[in-house]
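User: quick one
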Amino acid sequence: MMATTVPKQIGARIRRKEDPRLITGSSTYTDDVKLPGMLSMVLVRSPHAHARITEIDVSEAEGMDGVVAIVTGADLEGTVAGLPVAHTLDELKEPPHRALSIDKVRYVGDAVAAVVAVDPSRARDAAERVHVGYESLEAVVDIEAATEDGSPLVHEEEGSNIAYEFPFLAGDVDEALLNADVVLRLRLMNQRQIPVALEPRSVIAQFDRGFGKMTLWSTTQIPHLLRTQLAVGLGFPEHSIRVIAPEVGGGFGSKLNVYAEEFLTAHLSRTLGRPVKWTADRSEGFLATTHGRDQLNEVEVGVDGEGRLLGMRVRMLQDLGAYHQLLTPVVPTLTVLMLPGCYRLPNLEVHLSGVFTNKTPTDAYRGAGRPEATFLIERVMDHIAAELNLDPAEVRRRNFIAADDFPATTATELVYDSGDYESALDRLLELADYAGLRREQEERRARGKVMGIGLSTYVEICGIGPSAALPAGGWEACTVEVRRTGAVVVKTGISPHGQGQETTFAQIVADRLGVSIEAVEIAHGDTDYVPEGIGTFGSRGLAVGGAALSLALDTIRAKVKKFAAHLLEAHEEDIEYEGDRLEIKGAPDRFVTLEDVIGAAYLATDLPEGVEPGLAATHFFEPPNFTFPFGAHLCVVDIDPETGEPTLRRYVGVDDCGNVINPMIVDGQLHGGIAQGIAQALFEEAVYDRNGQLVTGTLMDYALPKASYLPNYELHRMTTQTPVNPLGAKGIGEAGTIGSTPCVMNAIVDALSPYGVRHLEMPARPEKIWRAMGSGASK
Amino acid sequence: MKRTIRLTVNGREHSLEVEPRLLLAHLLRDDLDLTGTHIGCETSLCGACTVLVDGRAVKSCTLLAVQAEGRQVTTIEGLAEGAGPQQLHPLQEAFWNEHGLQCGFCTPGMIMTAHQLLQENAEPSEDEIRHGLEGNLCRCTGYQNIVRAVQSAAAEMRER
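Assistant: Done. Structure below.
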């Protein structure tokens, strides 16, 4: 047949392959799955933040219509292990985290009993009739109070609420601060946030007694890691477990976990011999799905008279909540690693303490530790500017790691792969007309208006990551199968849940093999179909998962060339493979097509010597380093002096994530990320009262941004490739969140600077801003 | 005590026995297997369960099934009805073209609300779109491409 020319797909704005099912209501999320004989599980949760359980009386509930089983923590002892925590810390207190608590409850939402009934309504009715006696204890809510002697203890047997200490020292900070012209002190709180993926968590376990096979559908970002943990936690052979992450409605880190409900439904399905489903309602999700951030930093930073960083000391307290979830203690260690940001920081001392409190466990939330680091160092930059009366852009410029310093080793021993921070900032200032904005600000201020301009320049750690740096492996796996019909099936170990890799991976395959996008199917999220993988988190989908795909495509291409050489009776090295056409160099009329090769590979009647039939390859990619995307953001805020209400008038970004496969999808990731970062700066805060009750426990009270709260984003791009993976791509999932929070806060503080304001705690709600304008007290 | 109700869903008439406490959202999902209508909260705040009842956007978790007696209900599965096989409603097409969705969970409800918005105002401004969609939450897109999708669908629908 004639070879066809396929237009280049990599770099093209192609609408997503996953969308037709999503816009027609034809997709299947976990809660959409119905199985014959399926039962419903509802959990009885503690209304107290801290209490001793004096009794659990299930007798009334057990007799109710439709109730099949009720279990408490005592029933699980010896059968269901505690929930896992994965870490690489030297020392960590690991108090038991049982799927159902016994003796004591430690946060509002801590589960004490599971009720299984024939449908959700009956399970819910019965759960209300489980009578639990509690003896209320004083709750540990404030993170600083939790570290004091005499504080009530979340886990008495541990003797302290401090779960671990993580000290870090590079250089000599005492000396640096002594030699500094100026020493600045800041206290920064990264308030607790609630991820709120729009799809509530859900899980279904189905145990097949005949085969001894456990199938679990779950709203998870990590089906393979969940499979292993189910095997360990419940004593199943790992190969007898199949985890399916069907359509998953967002995660943002909150589904990067192993949850009690996954263990419980699996255990109950095994004992009852019927499928068991649990789906969170939203209020339950607010209490029993991990939260994020909740980190307090006290910073001392020394600079010379020109505003150059000499040394920084940080006392960091991380609120862990009541228990460790999968990565709870690891998240703030990422903050420590990324504290230098885009800057030369020769001396750094950090003391991190992870602290238990009677609140929902914290864990990864979009950015996971890096937003805290970027917020800290970017607020430091603006403080330096204010103190020395310099332009914030100029302070950043004086401290940037230079473009010719890469690869650059930081004080925290990371090796930044590639970057050009100054160019990103210059480009941003030009595109946004920074000089013009400053003139406008001056004019407006003269007329009594309140206007602020905020900058942030960020670098983040992505493409997670080298296995040595992670508690559970950082590689990714991929299989490519070129089927005899010409269809290409890709089985990837990542588990996308909105990121669009069914499209971006198909674009890569289309270009590399010379097939149409439509001929490519990307399979993921089923451990029986895709036997190995790690998952989707840490902006690793393309940088690690895509790299594994690239390796598999290399192998396929090499085999295709072998076949072509054989069919054309030429040397392999003389074959050129472009589009779907394989021709002999210098003799373009002598060619075969991919279709010819596929036919030869599967007919197998005339194989090249030493070559097996078929056309498939599996590869694992182990990243040699993380990747470090970067960028510069600017925003303009107008504040109503009467009400303190801030309006985000403009938001401009220059982002560099290395090579881009689909610019539409990259922009989309940035939009959503920036929105979440803006939300931390202006709207969202998980508030607990002094008794440990979550007072922002519904969407009415927790200020998730609506369409009218947010601006349009003006996005521009630079491309600095990474040498870390064969695609040269860095990852973009979290960059927007990381860059935007300090950008907005710097704008707010800049707007308020005529009032003598140097700092404001997040979220910068109108009332807080209005009070600051009145008092200038937050100097 | 179960009650019998009649209603029309996506052009098809149904007669069903339901518990009085059953919500329309659950009737659609559990009794009629129309799982394109999603449930994202129980406080009528997220909008994921929005459907059309007699042509008006309604959060189906705020309505008891028995209150839908005699009504015409349209869900995302029935939105493109009459557009021909394999055809999409202009709103669906626009959400696809403009990358107005990522995880897709809010999308059916978002499209239904946008549908009513465009019925009432064929040429809404950006501000009117943003305010018109206030009852629907999206956590993935930051809304910009949703706004663009609604603008683009509006233009397309005006031309038809």
